[in-house]
Amino acid sequence: MSSRESRVSDLRIVLLGKSVSENSLVGNFILGRAAFDSEAPPDVVERVGGRLKDRHLIIINSPQLLQTNISDHQITHTVRECVFLSDPGPHVIVLLLRHEQCSAEDQECVEKVLHSFSERVYQHTMVLSTQEPNETNDILQRIIQKCANRHFSLQRSSSPDDLLQMFEDIVKMNDGHHLECAEAAQYFTVKQQTTGRRECDDI
User: Fold this and answer.
1) What is the C-alpha to C-alpha distance for residues 160 and 52, in angstroms, rounded to an integer?
2) What phi, psi does 97 have (nearest 5°)?
3) What are the residue boundaries of the AIG1-type G domain, all occurrences included (predicted)?
4) Which of 43, 74, 125, 138 has its CA at 20 to 30 Å from residue 14's CA atom?
């Protein structure tokens, strides 16, 4: 199998959040090992490979992209890096959002970031929460509804297999196709020709 064919068969997941520690927790939960460092700099986008059941996963971890104080320039640059590292495109985008922290400003930031990927981004997106809500957050509920009500609540009893099933359902709903991020395609072609990226793929 060629390297291109191998990349196409991978399940590529982009984790977007506000917190290095929370993103690391979720990434490590999915892969079942300490793949991400909770002390890593927040502006670093990491790409790590692993296996869950019979599925090879590539996780692209961006723990700062949903921070409301991020600049438009940072959004553009970081989204481009996420798409480049998930070449030829991500299958699933996971929003790490907390009920008690989700404000109108957060919703605006989420929409801006997601639309930077693609207009069709919600077909590939889900929400993941790491805490049980004390009360319903209407803004978070609206975001979940835009993601076709795909929401996973990470609890002590949660299994990575359950989360993998949700990923597979998203892939199936999109007929196996990854998200096309056409606006950035030319940029990545040039970048691939001129730079090499640090990767940590453990198969």
Assistant:
1) 8
2) -130, 145
3) 11-179
4) 138
SS (H, E, C) 120-167: CHHHHEEEEECCCCCCCCHHHHHHHHHCCCCEEECCCCCCHHHHHHHH
Q: What DSSP character marks residue 182? A: G
Contacts 24+ apart (CB under 8 A), 28-36: 29/154, 29/158, 29/160, 29/163, 30/57, 30/59, 30/160, 30/163, 30/164, 31/57, 31/59, 32/160, 35/59, 35/200, 35/202, 36/61
Residue 54, both tokens: 């019979």
Query: pLDDT tens digits for 115-144?
Result: 999 999 999 999 999 877 666 688 999 999
Over residues 72-108, the pLDDT tens digits come to 999 999 999 999 999 999 999 999 998 777 889 999 9
Integer CA distances (angstroms), 63 to 149, 160, 182, in order: 23, 20, 24
Instruction: Name the residue among 91, 11, 78, 93 with its Cα closest to residue 46.
Output: 78
The whole-model pTM stands at 0.85
